[in-house]
Amino acid sequence: MNRFAALLLLGAALAGFPARAETMLTGAVEQGSLVVGRAEPGAKVALDGEALPVSPDGVFAIGFDRDHGRSAKLVVTLPDGQVETKVLAVAPRAWQIQRIEKIAPALVTPPPEAMARIKREVAMKAAARPTDTPREWFAGRFIWPARGVISGVFGSQRFYNGTPKNPHYGVDVAAPTGTPIVAPADGIVRLAEPDMYFEGGLVFLDHGQGVISIMMHMSRIDVKAGQHVHQGDPIGAVGQTGRATGPHLHWAMVWRAAHIDPSLLVPGVSTAGAASGAAVGGD
Ligand SMILES: [Zn+2]
């Protein structure tokens, strides 16, 4: 605390006002956004009735799914028992419609013999998404994990071979196979699998408190589960593995169960050193 702030607090205390800072939120509250909160140390935080992890110095993450409703309720309980309630207006966004043709039918609707493998991989992925890692790496600035052309944006409603599918929960960076992928922020590798049915080469990077980066379709993986990587460290390379129609990185992010738009966390668009841009991602 600087001297001026200390004097202000002293003045507030002398005037009989509570000498505390209100909970601060950094980041736009909108569908797909991740917001960093800072509360008084020792505070407890709940969003929409769900208790959340908070660092010892009061830092916490809140996120808003692509399909989050128009408002959210943040309740902060201060160490002295006082309760601060904020009703947040969650700005809605408009989503693109994207049609992807010429995907192998077996990858759009997996054949029965693939179901056991898919089920096993779903369990593996669920187990690699801790929601309470006591780290706050998500609170710093993120960088683009790869350079290339943005060929798919977060949230678009996709039609594969004319059939509506799940929304696109990531940003696609089209780049030649072998283009380096780096860690967008510090994290702990939670999953490093070279051959998943849908995702191909897949890496989960845990940035703390349930904020996880998901990198798909990698041609090469240079990290192992459990490894701590720093922002900018190489983690592998762009590829076309799994359900992909061209070489690209699919970068998704989650906060707990919510799908987050990674492009809201990084500056501008990653077109420096761009590839041809002809490749379009499948997922
Ligand atoms: Zn994608």
Automatic annotation (TrEMBL):
Keywords: Signal. Transmembrane segments: none annotated. The keyword Signal applies. CDD domains: M23_peptidase. GO terms for molecular function: metalloendopeptidase activity. Residues 1-21 form the signal peptide. Coiled coil: none annotated. Residues 167-262 form the M23ase beta-sheet core domain. InterPro entries: Cell_wall_metabolism_enzyme, Dup_hybrid_motif, M23ase_b-sheet_dom. Pfam families: Peptidase_M23 (PF01551). The keyword Signal applies. This is Peptidoglycan DD-metalloendopeptidase family protein. It comes from Parvibaculum sedimenti.
